[in-house]
Amino acid sequence: MIDIHPPQKSDHTWKDFFLHIGTIAVGILIAIGLEQAVELIHEHHQRTDLRQGAITDARLYLRDVDENRDANTQQVEDLTARIQQVRETISLHHPLPPPAYRPAFPIETIRLENLAAAKSSGLIHLLSEEEINSAGDAEVAVINSEALKERAQEAATKRVAFEQRFQTAFPSGPFDFSHITPAQLDEYLGLLLEERVRRTETLAYLELMHRGGLAYIKGQRDLDKLRSAEEGGSAH
After folding, report:
1. What pLDDT shows up at residue 235?
2. Per-residue pLDDT for 42 more than 90?
């Protein structure tokens, strides 16, 4: 005869089931929380690196701007001295001496390398809106300064080409202006004045960039206040 045994009562209750499900859910939530915490810590480190990079950019920016200012200041001074010589030759009929410009300072292109890297990597969104806007304003300033520098260089090229008409040998031969005509003197004066105007415009813009860069290094990020500092107002 076959013995039939009644089914044994399960040791697991609905309470156990829901406790098990709850344990799994809590474990998943903890894992998600830990993952988010790690991501937040990683983003914090990235943001810190971006801000340190921005300060490095600002210091290099200010150094390059100041080097450009020094170079343009010297060029404006030399052009002013040469303009005076040409004017004396026109009005007093003095012999025109050869040009005596001082050796040009080496000029670095103004760079924002860390900002460019942040944009290309897509990490710039980690910065605040103020930080992004102020960085963008610095980029525009660099573009504008390069355009002004190019215009000044074009004027310099025309002036140098004129002077070489009176150079006995290129590139280091002496200059002989003894046969320069009144019309040529007027033309020469115009070229010198044009270049000085262009370099003075460049210098004025570099002064603006210097003030803005200095305010940024001191901690200012508000775009309106940075622009006020650039114009000579308070950065605070």
Report:
1. 52
2. no
Q: Per the omega criterion (within 30 degrees of 0), is the bond before 171 cis? A: yes
- State yes or no: pLDDT of 91 exceeds 60: yes
Distance CA 195, CA 159 (A): 8
- Model confidence pTM above 0.85: no
Mean pLDDT of 18-47: 75
Whole-number Å distance between alpha carbons of 95 and 180: 9
Please state, in angstroms and rounded to a whole number, the distance separating the CA atoms of residues 118 and 127: 10
